[in-house]
Amino acid sequence: MHAMAGSSSSEAGAYEDTDSQPLKLVYYLVYPVGKLIELLVFKPIQFVGSWMTGEREEPDPASTKTIGPRAMPSR
To answer: Is the pTM of this model over 0.90?
Structure first.
């Protein structure tokens, strides 16, 4: 509403160059690439890292409530 109030256009909601944001075009191009990198690179790294450090818990199919972290393999 604020952008339209200061507009000199007689047509309500008309697009003008003064209302444009050039970085929005960059955002539209970069965001999908960043999201794809997050899903294909960083999520698997997080999963493997949390699995190896024991932060993830094993599922409890018998519902015995004895859930614990995965053991690290001994060398």
So the answer is: no
